[in-house]
Amino acid sequence: MALALKKVGPFARRALAWWNGIELPSEAPPPSAPCAAAPVKASLPPLVSDRKSALWTDPRSHLIEQVWGAGFGGPVDAEWVARFVAPLALNSKMTAINLGAGLGGVARATTLSTGTWVTGYEAKPELVEAGMELSTLEGLAKRAPILPFDFAKPSLKRESCNAVIAINAFYTLADKAALYSAMFDALRVGGHVLFADYMAIGNKRDTPAFQEWLKLEGEPVHLSSPDETKAALAAAQFDVRIVEDVSPEMRHLITLGWARFAEALRQTNFDRRLGVALADELALWLARLRVLESREVGVFRVHAIKLNAKAKG
To answer: Is residue 43 domain-resident?
Structure first.
């Protein structure tokens, strides 16, 4: 593994050390952040044996599930999602859309915590298939289906939902204006948009941290600034209420996820066939941590409301 132990944080370092057969002394966890998630748990979620989708033959998919939990591709979990969507006051008589649904963890968590009918839309066919399988296995095929979506040509049924939710789903999209317009059209009057996403802070793009992040993301990154995001949503006729930097919370959640995984490595047998996947996933999240810590990029929470039908112009 090319990453040096001294260049990474303590919990990622423990994962790296384990893989290289190095025993490290115990390290105290970081102090809890103001928006901290639940305490670190040592147990890992088991892999489900009755899955049929082709995605589950990919070692990295298995590794991602062991790090982040079933149905999730990043540091948020069901408890975090329940807190995130709480301001929307969703209920069982409402419907919502989850854009960039991935394996559907956010959509299902929203449904289970609020009773809302949530349709997840995802661009990658392999994630659509696997995400729909997970919804079916959990008995949520109708309440939280995962369907295909083309972000390049966004089209959503007009006035079909009460909320649009997304987690880090827009930062690789070049034409955000078209998506915001489609989101506005999809919402009923009084409906809410709530998303968190990577955004640019400042104008630096040539630092080592930023370039390493771009290299490891695997697809082009198109960042807007918080002000540009607010302006684009306003141009789509949203009333923008909140554009809030939640980078410290996201950095804490990333570290917490790897802390849980590193601790679990001490207590469970890890399939070393997942070693390459571990190196790749760890490198990606280290790059994300570094670019967030550099303050060139931040994660921002955005909340906007559709107060009126679209004005004719």
So the answer is: no
Phi first, then psi: give them for residue 298, nearest 5 degrees.
-135, 165
CATH number at residue 207: 3.40.50.150
- Token code pair at residue 164: 């649009």
Q: Is residue 313 part of a domain?
A: no
24 compared with 224, residue with greater pLDDT: 224
Task: Enter the pTM of the model.
Answer: 0.85
Q: Is the pLDDT of residue 27 over 90?
A: no
Q: What is the pLDDT of residue 176?
A: 97
* Pure H helices in 2-74: 10-19, 59-68
Higher pLDDT, 30 or 70: 70
Pairs from 58-65 (Cβ < 8 Å, separation ≥ 24): 59/273, 59/274, 59/276, 59/277, 60/274, 60/277, 60/280, 60/281, 61/130, 62/271, 62/274, 62/277, 63/274, 63/277, 63/278, 63/281, 64/277, 64/281
pLDDT at 234 over 80: yes
- When pLDDT is cut at 50, 70 and 90, the band that residue 31 belongs to is very low
What is the chain's length? 313
The count of domains in the chain is 1
Q: What is the DSSP letter of 74?
A: S
* Domain span including residue 73: 5-18+53-305
Does residue 160 lie in a domain region?
yes
